[in-house]
Model the fold of this input.
Amino acid sequence: MVKNKEPPIPTNKNEASPSISNVKTPPLKNEIPTTQQEPLQKPAEASNGKAESKPKSELELAREEAINLRNQVKKITDELQEWKEKYVYLQAEFDNAEKRRAKAMDSYKKRMQADIIFAFLPLVDSFIPAIKKVDEGAYKDVKSLGEGLKTLKQQLDNILKGLNVTPIDQVNIPFDYNLHEVTVSQERPDLPDETVLSIVQVGWKLGNDVIRPAKVVVSKKPTLPSPGDAKVADMTQAKVAPPDAENKNSTESQKKT
Done:
């Protein structure tokens, strides 16, 4: 068996023994050098928690704000375009409806005019032979001519009645601003105030609507003189002397002289 050799003991007294601090101790098996510990600690810290995030710069915040604003502008632009298309569509529908309404009103007016003309055609047919008879001298007296005119008037009344047109020609009724138009007023003490006395021009109604008001003469109460006016008249008569009295006074003055 080989024995380990012991280190030689220094024999020189001046030779110092090596200090403990100068002696390098070999590293232990489980000990890791410091140079190798640092890179191993960084991933351990990263694995334990998230790394701290850096604050965003003003430029990055401005870019994000610009992107948000751009998205909002695009959204508003799309909505505006959609509303514009709806407006154009509704405007076109309104224009078409207005054209259809105008066309329908035009055709309705033409139909109404045709109905009115057709209603008056029988009267025209009666007037034509009547005028021929006048030219031929068939109406020898005024009485026969009047009877023919009455017949035509009756026919005209029937036509107007068929068209729901009625005359406004009643007298001795109260004045109505909706039906009448005053032309002249006459004093009538025997009638109430604003009573229709006579018709100057006949008015006409279509159903309940007034086409033309009637021009009428109405009554009014005579104005009575007030007591004050009577006193003033007496005073003026008393102050003014008759011409005979003035002549008498002048003759008497001449006699005295």
Observations:
- Residues 11-23, 35-41, 43-47 have pLDDT under 50 and may be disordered.
